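Quick review question:
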């Protein structure tokens, strides 16, 4: 089994919630994950001071593989000259010199694609054909049986219950390409509210039987939550089993003294279209008996 802690939109800067950040850090340590994913918007205004704080924070997480990708807030918005000529300078210096990455752990290949497009689409982002081919080449080298996952800040499948939500341009073509590569899971952020479902919820796709499991995280350490997560901090816990992808969405509640499970989702893996009738689906709470302080905001 592979255990993944997935947070997003930590927004070091004015919206950052330091208490929530400490709670998330403590919770991640208690879970003892195999992989940590932070899907973009590490900063609010892409300032050097914000990136330094973000780097120091990331360095405090458990010493396991970590996947981090840029978000639209990780490039300058108002510093126009910098946004045009060196938009990722600070990100490259303090977070990672690479913008598209491949992370391999036993049983899983994760391709992170930089969807921030500072010169073309500062809000909605882009994934271009060269990046899709980068992913294809990476997955071709994956061992048989590996779960293939993509991480991108911007979302390819809009939450069906969230009006006014625009996905990445050309999202349907990209989803079809990922399906053809055998991608089973996409993780992202940007919406500041969670959405956990399947790409078939919003687009029938070329493979109408399987689709791709979509796991969007809300904002994990900021005061900018939206919709039902307004003023809430959230993250996702994923477990990858041979037969299933299990996702438990956690939200911070003062009554719980920290993060607590809010909803649970189990999806059949690979070529499975459904679970065997009569099979028992159970999701364990790894935080049972371990709650941590902090604030709801």
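Suggested answer, residue by residue:
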């Amino acid at each position: 089994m592979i255990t993944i802690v997935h947070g997003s939109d930590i927004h070091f800067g004015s919206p950052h919630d330091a208490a929530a950040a400490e709670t998330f850090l403590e919770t991640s340590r208690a879970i003892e994950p195999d992989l940590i994913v932070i899907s973009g918007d590490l900063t609010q205004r892409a300032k050097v001071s914000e990136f330094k704080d973000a780097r120091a924070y990331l360095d405090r997480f458990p010493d396991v593989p970590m996947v981090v990708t840029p978000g639209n807030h990780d490039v300058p918005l108002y510093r126009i000259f910098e946004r045009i000529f060196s938009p990722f300078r600070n990100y490259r210096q303090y977070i990672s010199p690479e913008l598209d990455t491949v992370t391999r752990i036993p049983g899983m290949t994760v391709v992170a694609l930089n969807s921030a497009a500072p010169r073309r689409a500062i809000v909605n982002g882009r994934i271009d054909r060269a990046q899709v081919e980068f992913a294809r080449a990476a997955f071709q080298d994956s061992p048989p049986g590996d779960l293939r996952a993509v991480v991108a800040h911007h979302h390819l499948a809009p939450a069906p219950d969230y009006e006014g939500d625009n996905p990445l341009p050309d999202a349907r073509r990209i989803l079809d390409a990922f399906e053809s590569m055998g991608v089973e899971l996409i993780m992202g952020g940007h919406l500041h509210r969670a959405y956990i479902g399947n790409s078939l919820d919003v687009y029938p796709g070329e493979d109408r039987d399987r689709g791709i499991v979509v796991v969007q995280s809300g904002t994990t350490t900021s005061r900018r939550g939206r919709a039902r997560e307004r003023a809430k901090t959230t993250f996702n816990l994923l477990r990858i089993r041979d037969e299933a992808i299990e996702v438990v969405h956690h939200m911070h509640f003062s009554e719980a003294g920290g993060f607590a499970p809010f909803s649970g989702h189990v999806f059949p893996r690979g070529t499975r279209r459904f679970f065997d009738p009569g099979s028992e689906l159970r999701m364990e709470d790894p935080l049972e008996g371990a709650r941590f302080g902090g604030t709801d905001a």
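Why it works: Helices lie at 18-31, 48-58, 80-85, 89-94, 129-140, 171-180. Residues 2-268 form a domain with the Purple Acid Phosphatase; chain A, domain 2 fold (CATH 3.60.21.10).
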